[in-house]
Amino acid sequence: xxxxxxxxxxxxxxxxxxxxxxxxxxxxxxxxxxxxxxxxxxxxxxxxxxxxxxxxxxxxxxxxxxxxxxxxxxxxxxxxxxxxxxxxxxxxxxxxxxxxxxxxxxxxxxxxxxxxxxxxxxxxxxxxx
Length: 129
What we know:
By secondary structure, the protein is an all-alpha fold. The chain is built from eight helices and no strands. The protein has one domain (18-127). The radius of gyration is 20 Å and the shape is elongated.
């Protein structure tokens, strides 16, 4: 799969589709590295179960009510976003929110789980700005 991603770098100049300089710019765009760093952060957080610890601390501090969990995520996202980039913060908190949503679906049958899930994901996106 990784070798397939490098094929345009070789084939485009050979087939006179694009010069090698222009093709190489697509591989070295700073936005790509920003996303890649955010994904690496998210994978590292999931590997070491840090997302579960952060989620449990947010729930412990804010409480188990849906509105207070959302407020806890707003404060956590805003706090982390002060020191990290907005994109990295959003990608880092996405697995944390996913684990909280799964726990809420397993343990709470009352209320509208779909609205809670949508609100939690939107809160992370808006609070990281």
